[in-house]
C-alpha cells in the first residue's frame, strides 16, 4: 500500500508532527514533503516508503482501501500496567505496610 498526500497530512496531525518532524524522522527533505502534501509533486516510491515507515514508527497505522476509503489511525498503545492474571490479586509490600487496618477509616 502506498502513501497518499491526505494520509500523510492526517498521520502527521494524529502525531502532532510538523513537516520538520517528519523530515527528521524519515530523512526526507522538508520541501519534498511539502510539495507532496500540496499535490505539487509525487515522490519516488522509496521516498514514500521512508515517510510511511517513519509515521508508523511514531505510532500510526495505515488503513488500506476497503470500500470505505483509505485512512489512518493511532496504534493501540501497550498499557503501562503490570500484566497479571485477572483472577489474581497482587499486593506489594510497600503498600501493605501503609494500609490501615479494616475499620480504621484510613
Q: In terms of per-residue confidence, which ranges show pLDDT below 50 for 5 or more consecutive residues? A: none
Report the sheet-strand fraction: 5-15%
What is the top-level CATH class of the domain at 5-74?
Mainly Alpha
**First-residue to last-residue Cα separation:** 57 Å
What name goes with the CATH superfamily of the domain at 5-74?
Answer: lambda repressor-like DNA-binding domains
Chain oligomer state: single chain
Most strands sheet = 2 strands, antiparallel
Identify the CATH architecture of the domain at 5-74: Orthogonal Bundle
Protein name: XRE family transcriptional regulator
InterPro entries: Cro/C1-type_HTH, Lambda_DNA-bd_dom_sf
Pfam families: HTH_3 (PF01381)
Domain HTH cro/C1-type: 9-43
Amino acid at each position: 500500500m502506498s502513501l497518499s498526500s491526505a494520509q500523510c497530512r492526517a498521520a502527521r496531525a494524529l502525531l502532532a508532527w510538523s513537516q520538520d518532524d517528519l523530515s527528521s524522522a524519515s530523512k526526507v527533505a522538508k520541501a519534498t514533503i511539502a510539495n507532496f502534501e500540496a499535490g505539487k509533486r509525487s515522490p519516488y516510491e522509496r521516498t514514500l516508503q521512508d515517510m510511511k515507515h517513519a509515521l508508523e514508527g511514531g505510532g500510526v497505522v495505515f488503513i488500506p482501501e476497503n470500500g470505505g476509503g483509505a485512512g489512518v489511525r493511532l496504534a493501540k498503545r501497550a498499557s503501562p500496567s503490570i500484566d497479571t492474571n485477572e483472577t489474581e490479586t497482587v499486593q506489594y509490600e510497600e503498600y501493605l505496610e501503609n494500609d490501615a487496618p479494616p475499620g480504621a477509616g484510613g
